[in-house]
Amino acid sequence: MTHAVAADDVWKYYGDYPALREIRLAVEPGSCLALLGRNGAGKTTLLRIFAGFSKAGKGSVSIFGRDARDLETRRRVGILGHGISVYDELSAFENLTLFGRLYGVADRRKTALDWLERVGLRHVRDGLVREFSRGMRQRLAIARAFLHDPQVLLLDEPFTALDDRAIAVLQTVLRDALARQCTIVLSTHQLREAMELATHVALLARGRLAYHGERSAEMLSDPGWLYARYGES
Amino acid sequence: MRNKLVYILGALVAVLFVRNLYVILNVLPDEANQGAMYRIMFFHIPSWWTAGLALTVAGVTSGLYLATGKMKYDAISVSVTEVAVAFLCIGMTTGMIWARIIWGIWWTWDARLTSALICVLLYGGYLILRNGIEDPTSRARISAAFNIFAFVDVPIVWYSIRWWRTQHPQPMSLPPEMWSALLWNWLALILLMIIFIKMRLRQEEMRREVDGLRRLAHAI
Amino acid sequence: MAFWSQTFTIAAKDLRAELRSKEAINASFSFSLTILLLFSFAFVEEATIDIAGGLLWIVFAFAGALILNRSFARELPNDCLDALIAAPLPASALFLGKALANLLLLLAVEAVSFPVFGVFYNARWTGQFWTLALVAVLGTWGFTVIGTMFSALTVNLRLREVMLPLLVYPVMIPCLMAAMKLTGHLIGGEPLDAEMMVWMRFLIGFDVIFTALALALVDVVLVS
Q1: Staple C186 to which of A69, B181, C129, C132, CB 3.0 to 4.6 Å?
Q2: Which structural domains are found in chain B, ordered by start?
Q3: How far is the C-alpha of A186 from the C-alpha of A154, rounded, in Å?
């Protein structure tokens, strides 16, 4: 069975500093991997390489066995990063139909409207994003990321700075995705939300993979357990 | 061992320059229309040929870097381009001196001189661009792409006197002893170019070794 | 055909965003009109016909720079560039879409500048109108391709604001020179002669080569 997301001996340098070292990781289809680590551990760097924004300095990554930059692969991947990745000068509806077109979504107008409904923005569909509140922008970002029905989801600290409504929307959307056998890799500091969703856990410490395995009962009951056991002292 | 080759080449270049200067200054007669001043051509023309050769190599290695990702091509690109810029400056200066004496003007905006000046600006820009990017991989990638764009000007410089009417002289036939002097001097300049490139390459290799050691130190 | 659909999607998006915010386009129009007015004021009428070609293209180049420099930089707020790179969109389609949008904006500025020039300089410029329009499009495409490409090249650099003008103008010079020569000749009402055809072929060659190079290299430049 091909791994949904795999990293094979990945190294990444920023100048002299090795942001990632010897990362060997495989994520099975249908699972949800919580990527943990302190700030600067390399979570964002690794996710960016999975997403195809960066190339690994050494080693390779693959999504369903193919290169992350491959056009077909990109069609199946959904990304939610630190920025909301929607245009301030366009309306919510225009933003979603734009990405719908780029991703080749069939019947993009209907899909856009459905997603606006799901994230609770239907009533402001023609409002320009620059007028939106922060929570509204974040919910639009979620709609954008999931719009094209991706099979692999890469989320970089998705719960950070979300308001309650947006967190609820995101959790619902992620659970639905998992129910449809999507694969999720998410990095997070919000251990409780992450542990509830995760089937597997990986811990990065100073660029190295300190732990990788299934989410255990201990992790669920005490989310800080992993850091205590495997994190840096 | 690397040093030895540089010293040998250096000695050879010195000998060649002595021989060439002797021929250029003492043996060759004054030219009919220009008097003694034309002798600067024996440096002006080969300087530009050398620069053109170097820039072509740099363009190719930049392409090779983008195709293969091997840092050695980046090292060659920057070394060769730096040396080429030096020869471009020599070529420009000798040309301007000649023009001032023969035509009475330092400069004119004909196709050859304009495209040549653009060449200097472009490759100077390349060096400034490299200085502005700290990460070695990004630096290599971005400057290689820019180098390829800059290289489009080189054939323009070469063919400008064929495509447009220019103030700059057209290609002309020369008596054999002048051709010979020209080619001998070109040989000397090519060897000089090779020496400078080797020295710069060595510097670049050492820099990468230091970078590698720094990375190792950070990793521990 | 998905390629062209995506290209036009990007072009439409850029145009829509620019027409809503009007940041660059207002600056561009104002700059163009101001310079044309000032030069009309500063120089004797007879002299300005001689310098018309050069003057107009200097105006277009600098007014254009106001639009072109923002080309990829406008994707940086909200991390939109990441979303575009992650989308199944070939980098060449992204580039071409942006270049087309820029071309249309620049042609709009030129379409206003020429009549203004005609009025304030009392110049008849429509003698060779269609050839002039062709030269305007070819010349504008040439420096649009370069400006858009270099905007992509420098988008992730720390010193983007400083580097971009430094790198872009030398590359544009041959294209601008050809456009200046051709425009100056055509404004005088003369059809193109053999000497001018050299410049025309040069301009077309320039456009073809730089478009090809840009399409080939834009992917390499955007993905770190």
Answers
A1: C132
A2: 2-167+175-209 (1.20.120)
A3: 6
